[in-house]
Amino acid sequence: MATTTDVRSDAQIQADVLEELKWEPRLQPNEIGVIVKDGVVTLTGTMTSYTAKYAAVRGVKAVANEIEVKLFPGTERSDADIAEAVVRAVERDALIPIEKLDVTVSDGWVTLRGNVEWHYQREDAYEVVRRIAGVKGVRNLIVVKPKVSRTDLKKNIEDALIRTAQVDAKNITVEVQGTKVILKGTVRSWAEKQEAERQAWAAPGVTEVDNQITIK
Question: What is the reported pLDDT for 2?
Fold first, then answer.
């Protein structure tokens, strides 16, 4: 149950977000504007690359990204150059074969399509591409398609929880709905809850994890 001490004002949230943004080395002073209304944070402004990160601040209900990427004059790249850079970067750094991807580039925006078996492959492709100079944005349309049955998926996750010493597996139940995993039960710490979720995401074919585990 929330108490008055749990409720943070918009001004407090805004101050915390601004303080967190000061620690992001890729941001310049006054580059990003922060507006907070009813716990919803809106980030505004312009950036010179697509590498911004958002800080998780207590009390935030949602974040609206209205940041525009404007490259420095002379640093723009053609769509063909960006496409070639994407292919090279994926071949060199990503944990996904380039032949599994369909890459298109339009006005600096990269769209990734394809099918993979693992969630981490989808996320890794995005992380590699978003760091490429000249990219204004990334649309990650890669789909995770499992090759395992629901029963096998459930067993894989349960076995993974048992193997890790950081989780008390006997107090966690795993439910599988298609490619969605629901974790329930109790753990002793936030770190243990996060580790259980990490293990679920690591299973092949998982596209969503609903972590309902509670902390004692």
Answer: 44
